[in-house]
Amino acid sequence: RFFKELEARHQNNIFIDDISDIVEKHTSSTFDPYVKYCTNEVYQQRTLQKLLATNPAFKEVLSRIESHEDCRNLPMISFLILPMQRVTRLPLLMDTICQKTPKDSPRYENCKQALKEVSKLVRLCNEGARKMERTEMMYTINSQLEFKIKPFPLVSSSRWLVKRGELTAYVEDTGLFSKRTSKQQVYFFLFNDVLIITKKKSEESYNVTDYSLRDQLVVQQCDSEDLTSSPVKNTSAMLYLRQSSAAHLFRLAVLSNHAGEKVEMLLGTETQSDRARWITALGQDRDGQKTDRTTLTQVEIIRTYTAKQPDELSLQVADVVLVYQKVNDGWYEGERLRDGERGWFPTECAKEITCRATIDKNMERMGRLLGLETNV
Fold first, then answer.
1. Could you say which of 21, 70, 130, 231 has the lowest number of CB atoms within 10 Å?
2. Lowest-confidence region among 72-81, 126-135, 167-176
């Protein structure tokens, strides 16, 4: 119906003077299938992967279809994500029309209203997809945790996973005649409101050893040369840490754990970017979003990237991202211009924007798009 109305206007006159009324009409009334589609997209991808892995006949037929010239050598998954890619492009296209329409023109208000409606639609699509994925993830994690301490109800509609992963914890053991440092593996589940510390039993089983509310966490970066104020103070311990493979260290102070006690931890990661990502995630509520966006580096995405972890950002070619952090081993942390979503992505997917006029234009566009998002 949307396409037919656009086509009819094109047939009336090859020079189309306005489409804002058509965009506003359809995004506010007939585009609900986009919301449903995006909400369930995570299940759709999983179903496809399951069929490919378990059903040889399905895999064979799909390969035959994909090799057809009409598919242009593209896999089925690329067609399945097309509706999601299209709907996220609509606000940018509508914003361009806004930009090209004279502000004193009677059509300008129509453009703004259409942009508002299409931005609202995309927000609903994103929220639906995120909520479905988060809820399913919570139930999965809940079934894998075994509490060795007083348990608490994990599943909640207002709780979601921010980051998870294995870290090396350095512990000082005090013996009868000496102190020695040992290391042990811990597995963190960081949610938006709570940190759960576990020991991994298997790929699908974890013993909970401690937990803390997120507002009770204080995180601080440290280097292996600067351990004098860490829980590990003696010379042999410092030597041990310097020789250790996990050289990227940071401190985590839990002001009040499940038992109301203060706990200090010295933690190590295998890569520099892992440390940066953990420090960012654990300390995120304290960074205050006070950064002046106009001073940030802008990059354009030159290669599609699909997020593999909760703290990563999925990106499409031509997306513009504002960079908050760059880590030397190949990762950016940034904010997606089209919707303000924040996360990590590989530097190889992006190219820095150096043209001042383009940078200024992107900032104006972000102001319009995000300004509308908060008013819908």
1. 70
2. 167-176
